[in-house]
User: Which sequence fits this backbone?
């Protein structure tokens, strides 16, 4: 990319004709008492269909939009930028507040990514050609929680089955020194996620400065993601490791990066967190100018959204510890053979914002 050029300008004027849209519910059991639900937006026009995935975590937000149906005013001839500005004035949650404010970004991303896919298909062009960024083989890791009580078994079983498997692990205060040592001995952990930036969610983790210090010392090459530095002892525990601290949950825009207490050397990039396509591409531009290393993250996508974030990672940060493993890797009863291994062929579709193996 030419220095100073805005990547978004390459797609802002893309023509998009929307004649109708449909909502496709997806679901997968994610535990004994919970089912992961997402929604695919299918925008159609000019004989083509573009797709994007709404990854809102609240089941009620997902089921409510299906009860309401495809009532949003999306039909018309637009440029991608015109449609994006039009979405600013639409109520994407139909008169209700979403379960979390960030879900507004997630649904906005679903619609804009579907529109981008549709416009590219109508033009007969793949995204990487328009952005002039050739996708490269994609390094990916596997995100796991280690159970209750925690055990390294899931990590060791995947390594035994597939060899060199990389990991992003959610640290818990219940991790013992012995478990940390067992995990460290594998040499496979690229990211430790403390979940300290989540507040008031189902994935909150208590801040444990002792755990922070033990993990920082045991995994000297790993990124240390989303610590809760508002706790003085936790901040002190990680002060010697500040160059490895990275952020995920707080990052939705360039402005969020600029508000951080200190400049990060690396960041986790989850496209759906940014909402508009413009916000994501501006973030990529900013991090490239600032020399900030990126790695990708997912939101347990069940459909085409997974392939889309894999493709973006293959274009913008293919060599990072991208938490975008194909389906199956994170399942308790994972297939012992046949899963795609890292690095992943980016396999961009001939036209659109998709991989040929989209959704894997």
Assistant:
């Amino acid at each position: 990319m030419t220095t100073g050029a805005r990547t978004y300008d390459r797609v802002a004027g893309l023509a998009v004709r929307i004649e109708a849209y449909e909502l496709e519910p997806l679901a997968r059991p994610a535990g004994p008492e919970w089912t992961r639900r997402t929604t695919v937006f299918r925008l159609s026009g000019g004989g083509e269909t573009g797709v994007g995935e709404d990854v809102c975590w609240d089941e009620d937000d997902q089921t409510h939009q299906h009860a309401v149906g495809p009532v949003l005013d999306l039909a018309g001839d637009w440029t991608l930028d015109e449609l994006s500005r039009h979405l600013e004035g639409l109520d994407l949650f139909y008169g209700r507040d979403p379960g979390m404010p960030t879900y507004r970004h997630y649904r906005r991303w679903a619609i804009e990514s579907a529109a981008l896919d549709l416009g590219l298909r109508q033009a007969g062009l793949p995204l990487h050609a328009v952005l002039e960024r050739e996708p490269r083989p994609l390094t990916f890791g596997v995100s796991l929680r280690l159970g209750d009580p925690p055990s390294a078994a899931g990590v060791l079983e995947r390594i035994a089955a597939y060899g060199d498997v990389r990991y992003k692990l959610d640290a818990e205060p219940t991790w013992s020194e012995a478990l940390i040592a067992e995990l460290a001995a594998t040499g496979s952990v690229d990211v430790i996620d403390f979940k300290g930036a989540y507040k008031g969610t189902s994935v909150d983790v208590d801040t444990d400065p002792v755990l922070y210090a033990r993990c920082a010392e045991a995994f000297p090459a790993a990124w240390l993601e989303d610590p809760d530095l508002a706790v003085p002892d936790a901040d002190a525990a990680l002060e010697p490791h500040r160059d490895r601290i990275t952020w995920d949950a707080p990052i939705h825009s360039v402005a969020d990066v600029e508000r951080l207490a200190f400049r990060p050397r690396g960041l986790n990039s989850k496209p759906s967190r940014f909402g508009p396509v413009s916000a994501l591409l501006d973030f990529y531009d900013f991090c490239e100018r600032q020399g900030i290393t990126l790695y990708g993250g997912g939101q347990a996508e069940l459909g085409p959204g997974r392939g889309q974030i894999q493709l973006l990672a293959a274009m913008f940060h293919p060599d990072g510890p991208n938490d975008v493993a194909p389906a199956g890797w994170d399942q308790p009863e994972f297939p012992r053979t046949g899963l795609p291994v890292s690095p992943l062929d980016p396999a961009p579709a001939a036209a659109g914002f998709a991989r040929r193996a989209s959704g894997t």
Remarks:
- The chain has a mean pLDDT of 95.
- The CA atoms of residues 42 and 51 lie 5 Å apart.
